[in-house]
Specification:
The two termini are about 15 Å apart. Helix 1 packs across helix 2 and helix 1 crosses helix 4. The chain is mainly α and about 80 residues long. The protein has one domain: Non-ribosomal Peptide Synthetase Peptidyl Carrier Protein, Chain A, CATH 1.10.1200.
């Protein structure tokens, strides 16, 4: 089971690697589109990266509501949690 901290660390590493961001720019409060300058094509790349890491895909509809790094962490956390 992954904690939110684990997910954030993995996500931060992915953002740094995929989009050549400085690690200090990526925080839970960072807005993907305004602060990190991620566009819709980048978002697709990020969804694909998450799928490779977790083996599960975030639905595009769910990703539309994502605005911050924290939102992505929560979406991935819900995705990887076993069904109760």
């Amino acid at each position: 089971m992954q904690t939110r901290d684990d997910i954030f660390n993995t996500l931060r590493d992915a953002l740094v690697e995929l989009f050549e961001l400085e690690p200090e720019r990526v925080s839970l409060d960072s807005n993907l589109y305004q602060d990190l300058e991620i566009d819709s094509i980048d978002a697709v790349d990020l969804i694909d990266h998450i799928k490779r890491q977790t083996g599960k895909k975030i639905a595009a509809e769910e990703f539309k509501s994502v605005r911050t790094v924290s939102d992505v962490v929560e979406a991935v956390y819900r995705l990887v949690q076993p069904a109760a």
